[in-house]
Amino acid sequence: MPESRPVHDPKVLRAIAHPVRNRILTELDAAGSLRAADLAALLDIPANQASFHLRQLAKYGLIEEDPDAARDRRDRVWRSSPRGVNLDLGEIEKAPGGKAASAVYRAQSAAKAHAYVERAHDDRRDEGTARSVMDSSLRLTKDEARELSQELVDLVTAWGERTRGRDDAERRTYLYYAMLMPHPDLEQEETD
Predict the structure, then answer these.
(1) How far are the Cα atoms of 111, 167, 178, 181, 192 from residue 136, in angstroms, in the given order?
(2) What keywords appear on the UniProt entry (predicted)?
């Protein structure tokens, strides 16, 4: 897998932060290649709206057309950019408009994370689906934390490659959301 490209442009960050575009990126990452009509059905939005958002994501290099998946030359099928992106909020904040874009992205990201946690703990929904919530503490060096992080990335990437492109009735998009970071209370103690 090619190395992800660093993002320093606030416009790209705003494109990623948009809720519909973010969901499109999620679905393309999980499914592989999809048409605007497929995404419209998944997201319950009009097809022309899905097409507009796809063009915006393509404009910033976040997705690209997948001609091999198209039925003919008129059929537009989209996939995630093979390189992916690596957000560097510190660098983005140095650019004009970067602090505002970063603030919006951080607020939307925090709200989304909160909603994910609430949904994960709500066992009344979607009976019969697999669900897992894990909260673990580990004592690691920086190098061990990097190694663990890379192992998790590799594992999830392998599962994505293994299941991407399979389209049967039992499949649905599952979300894997994880954070590996020093305990926030300990970080605060270090700065005091």
Answers:
(1) 22, 33, 11, 11, 25
(2) DNA-binding, Transcription, Transcription regulation
| The pLDDT value given to residue 155 | 94
Residue 141 to residue 115: CA distance in whole angstroms: 31
CA dist., res. 68 & res. 183, Å (int): 45
Q: Model pTM? A: 0.76
5-191, which class in CATH?
mainly alpha
How far is the first Cα of the chain from the last one, in angstroms, to the nearest whole number? Answer: 41
